[in-house]
Amino acid sequence: MCMGGPPAPPRQEQQDAVLEVRVQLLGGGSVHNINDNADILSEILARLDGRSLAAAAGVCRLWAAVSRRDAVWEELCLRHVGPASGPAAAGHATRTVVAALGGYRRLYRLCLGPALDRLGRAGALAHAQARERLSLSLSLSLFSIDCYERLGGAGGGGAGAGRQQPPSSLLFLCKPVDVS
Amino acid sequence: MGTFPFQWPMDPASSAGIDASFLPSLLPPPAAPAAGSDDSVSYYGAPQMHPASLPDLAAPFPSRDAAADLAMRRAEEEVAGIRLVHLLMSCAGAVEAGDHALASAQLADANASLAALSTASGIGRVAVHFTDALSRRLFFSPTSTPQPPAAATDAAFLYHHFYEACPYLKFAHFTANQAILEAFHGCDAVHVVDFSIMQGLQWPALIQALALRPGGPPFLRITGIGPPSPPGRDDLRDVGLRLADLARSVRVRFSFRGVAANTLDEVQPWMLQVSPGEAVAVNSVLQLHRLLADHHHHAPIDAVLDCVASLNPKILTVVEQEADHNKPGFLDRFTEALFYYSAVFDSLDASGTASPMAEAYLQREICDIVCNDGPARAERHEPLSRWRDRLARAGLTAVPLGPSALRQARMLVGLASGEGHSVEEADGCLTLGWHGRPLFSASAWQASPAVAVDGEEDNPHNSNTSNVSSSGGDSNNSAGSSSNGKSRSSGVVGAAGNMFL
């Protein structure tokens, strides 16, 4: 901190500085709140991890609505398993297909979340490592199988009744891993 | 502070006793070992135990006897297990020699041994199926079917559970799909022929991958071969409708056709209705080995492979069990099967949750291998080396599976199971094994350029005839005559129809 001129009494100068910063932050009197703008809230929530994002849905109606946006979950998913070049590279086509299969939020809940948990049990999992152990294409393939199972019995008519089993192809992700 | 018995390894080789060298990261045993018993090792819990607490443990504690008991019981069980295996093998030897009396006596001994073992895990779990199968073989007349013929629904149900419980079928599907995807690169009209469609679980992933491929999806046709449905149901059509639904939702132009046939050699190329200009992939997951049965000195495998070659496929994906269960000698077969299925059951064990249905699926195979002979035996597993020879003789060349397939397989297996499974690559084929023992192998093939027929006609009948002449084989000329030759002919399920989107 360079001081030109004769040193003023230090305490007074500090107090002035603090007051000035505070005035700037408060924008001259009004208070900014992340809830004022849903898009800003969306940007913030998109940086959360899966569990926190799911919990965020319980905070208030606004947070519930924003945290259900698929774009938010898309960022989360792609952050973990997206192409190495970054989330943006995944592209529009992927978004369409994922939407058709049920959306990124569901992809995370059914597939990515349990898979990452499972891999994470082996130790702290950095993002780079996650991409080696799990890819977006593999997750989508597993997701599509689950989606297919949920279609089950469609068009089977009477034959389908009593034969329907709940979709189970992703259960293997939830089984406890023997890490002995 | 408590003490905790740690996981005992299943490997009998380590039954020589656990000593402190097995526990490198844990504290050394206290200075006062119990006299005489070499099971005197104390077990320690979490490695975070502070050395300062060691003096507290030096005093004898009540759980020590329980631990020693447990150790002794485990050792007994392992000895009993080994004895049981020897008994089963002697029994099988007696069966091969035709000595019914001796075989029954040894089987009775084996059953007694079995009672001493827990059949919940380890060698007991697989041995119980082998003893059952041996009983069936000895005490049922060979002409009557030991089990009622498998209803298609039961088979599908068990298959589904086997699919979920262990990674083998998933490995098969994903690896085959990767090879098919790569083979279809740049093609606009593609046709997949699935030798055993079951519930069609393999195809959603392919449909999704084609939807996302750069350049957009091709027009996809799937022809699913499966057993005829009981009256009142049309399973093939149901599967087709579901796949069509999925394809429609991801905007892939799709069409499905079902072919009902009891065995693959009933299927003739014209039934598959390959259109000119489309790329064909043939997918066989655990199907080829069933064709090795010797029907009147003629194995259907050659006819089927000729049929496949005549389609001029871009790729033929083959997944088979990596085992030699087709040896002519019963004892050899029995021994191989015992060790193979022990490894498979071991891997099921280690997956944590019990899956009796998956076991039932495997039990059927075991029963078939042990009880049936001649044309009745369908499970004729052969190792990859022999499949290579056969497929090469049929005029197909191997297509290496590539690094993406290996990477994907490793990822999948890493997700699906904890430790123990491993994917290895050898000569362009992938094998999935348990603790170093390969259990399933996946490979890909294509028609050799020399065999490919050029100038195919639009009319499938014509193309079929020309293919028969070029392959030069004595395979059935299916243009017309032989499809009527079989009384219970396969018949194409027209009702499955083409579902155009």
Description:
Chain A has 180 residues and is mainly α. Helices cover 56% and strands 0% of the residues of chain A. Chain A has nine helices and no strands. In chain A, helix 7 (104-120) packs across helix 9 (136-150). The longest helix of chain A has 17 residues, at 104-120. Mean pLDDT of chain A is 75; it is low at 154-163. Chain B is an alpha/beta fold and 501 residues long. Among the domains of chain B are: 70-139, no CATH class; 152-227 and 262-458, 3-Layer(aba) Sandwich (Rossmann fold). Chain B is 44% helix and 12% strand. Chain B is built from 16 helices and nine strands. Chain B has helices at 54-58, 63-97, 100-116, 123-139, 152-165, 168-183, 203-211, 235-249, 269-272, 300-310, 330-350, 356-371, 384-393, 402-416, 460-471, 481-485; strands at residues 189-194, 219-226, 254-260, 279-285, 315-321, 396-399, 421-426, 429-434, 437-447. In chain B, strands 1, 2, 3, 4, 5, 6, 7, 8 and 9 form a nine-stranded mixed beta sheet that branches. In chain B, strand 2 (219-226), helix 8 (235-249) and strand 3 form a beta-alpha-beta unit. Chain B is globular and about 70 Å long. The model of chain B is unreliable at 1-59 and 454-501 (pLDDT under 50). The interface between A and B is large, with 43 and 44 residues.
Can you describe this structure in just a few lines?
Chain A has 180 residues and is an all-alpha fold.
Task: Quickly list its features.
A: 180 residues, mainly alpha, B: 501 residues, alpha/beta, 44% helix, disordered N terminus, disordered C terminus
Estimate the global geometry of chain A from the Cα principal axes. elongated
The total count of strands of chain A amounts to 0
Q: Choose one word for the global shape of chain B.
A: globular
Largest sheet of chain A: none
Helix-and-strand structural type of chain A = mainly alpha
